[in-house]
Amino acid sequence: MAKMTFNERYFDELLKSSRVDGLVSRIADGIATDARASAPVDTGAYRSGIVRRKKTSAHRVVHLVVASDPKSLIIEARTGNLVRALRKRKR
Fold this sequence. Notes:
Shape: elongated
Helix content: 55-70%
Oligomer: single chain
Largest sheet: 2 strands, antiparallel
Radius of gyration: 17 Å
Distance between the termini: 37 Å
Structural class: alpha+beta
Order of helices and strands: HHHEEHH
Number of strands: 2
Strand order of the largest sheet: 1-2
Number of domains: 1
Strand content: 15-25%
């Protein structure tokens, strides 16, 4: 059986590169846009609280779409808005 060794430094650099960061950022921005477009609106706080946040770890850059309104968990549990926006872009 052949033994394989990965160049972990290469993958760390690749996953933190500006091209990968830009690609993931654009996808996350699209998900956030879709989620805001389909968000239920009462006061508008939930909709305006849907944002993309960038997080850097030891091995990669991650972009998260989050809802920051205090009622977001309740709204998401009832509507599944963020999940639907993610699934729409996943296709």
